[in-house]
Fold this protein.
Amino acid sequence: MTGAPALESAILLPVPEAEALVGGWRAKYDESAQSGIPAHISLLYPFLPPDRITEGDVEQLGSLFGSVRRFRYILKGVGRFPNVVYLAPDPDEPMRQMTERIWALYPETPPYGGAFDEVIPHVTVAHLDDEDVLDQAEAAVSTGLPIQSYAKEAWLMTQVVDRRWKVDHRFPLS
């Protein structure tokens, strides 16, 4: 007998400024949007299973993010991964540094499960196996750039029983 798949958690940087441009594409072509995750830049996914996250973890993450200064960035380019169109932040170094710091605290949770040699901060627009739709998405969103964005908090999101995601904790940046 097999059990239900394990629930997951993620730490992300919400990007509400991008929602008007990418929301429609994400609603159709990004599973994370369909399950309740807004436009965002992933800082660490997957994180710990939700039932393993303790108050100590929340305090540790709060301290980490409390030591990061708020910052402005621009979504100014469109990029591609296999089967993905995304918006690229500039600068992306602050996101890379946060990912590295979280991962250093939780070495058992490599970004994307260790699937990639390099973690590239991005806002997913569409994720599917249809080059024509990806080309359309890329063309459509490129006309709405640049987007000025402001990183002011990180979120710890967890899946709930119906596989939807909810914000468990908001961590303000300093």
Q: What stands out?
A: The radius of gyration is 16 Å. Residues 20-163 form a domain with the Cyclic Phosphodiesterase; Chain: A, fold (CATH 3.90.1140.10).
